[in-house]
Write a structure and sequence with these properties.
Length: 185
């Protein structure tokens, strides 16, 4: 009986930690609603598939993984950035996700891990959940674009592995991301 009461109190305490209500499904941002002044965080790249000098996404037949290391290939872009407290995928990052999904579709033995991250604001528990929602949103889009469910794994690090230390908007913007890692790299 005592264990049951302690368990119930623990569940009630965790339920009270929720700071904001979130959506279950990751909404996809409407291009018309996106401001033309949207600028990626410093150091972020948003090169699309139509960028001059970008090669195909599948890589060469003899070494498809070479495309992942080619700095001129969109597959070398590995980070998807998010707005504060959001897990909506911005239009500017869709070409990157699409390229990685097509790579996985063309290379059925390939595997990818999506690592969700947040900035330092918020509780540890909230940020772990938000990082997971971000990673899951990217996975859903990759699967819709042709990758297999079993090829893509998601994990959340929350605020535990910042890309850039600092307590300012520039640092926070760099840390609100999903990183795409391919197996064997």
């Amino acid at each position: 009986m005592r264990n049951w009461i302690i368990g119930a109190l623990l569940i009630a305490a965790l339920a009270g930690c929720k700071s904001t209500e979130t959506q279950d499904a990751a909404p996809v941002e409407d291009r018309a609603a996106t401001s033309s002044a949207t600028v990626p965080p410093s150091g972020a790249t948003t090169s699309g598939a139509t960028t001059p000098g970008v090669t195909g996404t599948a890589g060469s037949a003899s070494n498809p993984a070479a495309a992942l290391r080619d700095p001129n290939n969109i597959l070398s872009k590995r980070s998807i950035y998010f707005e504060y407290d959001q897990f909506t995928i911005k239009d500017e990052f869709r070409p990157i996700i699409e390229a990685h999904a097509k790579y996985l579709q063309a290379n059925r033995n390939a595997r990818a891990t999506l690592q969700g991250h947040t900035d330092e604001r918020g509780t540890r528990e909230y940020n772990i959940a938000l990082g997971q929602k971000r990673a899951d949103a990217v996975k859903r889009m990759m699967v819709l674009l042709g990758a297999s469910e079993i090829q893509v794994e998601t994990v959340s690090f929350g605020k535990e592995k910042p890309r850039r230390e600092g307590h300012d908007e520039g640092s926070w913007a760099e840390n609100r991301r999903v990183d795409i890692l391919h197996a064997g790299e």
